[in-house]
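At this stage, I wrote out one protein, both as residues and as discrete backbone shape codes, and that material follows here.
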Amino acid sequence: MNKNTVILEIFDFLRQRGVVENEGEFSEGWLGQCSSYYRGLRFKKTEPSIGVVAIVGSRLQKAGEQIVASPRHAHVGHRFLELSEKCHQLVNEEAVELELIG
């Protein structure tokens, strides 16, 4: 699992659910970056920063917790939480790598 794969999975999920319409909306609303951020990652073939992964993970978790409270949409909320957990795992893995290097 790498950061690009997870971010793409999140974007695809949110787009399919109608939560975002395009990359710019995703970049601003979910990644906390300028509207061209996600597009820039794809064109430059670079990974998002770990800070961006942490931000989107936190936003997914908050949204998921709210959505799960609605029995009618709980299954969607659980998917938000699953994606959030993937982000948290990436953040934790990178934190462990930094500790081992130091």
About this structure: Residues 3-101 form one domain.
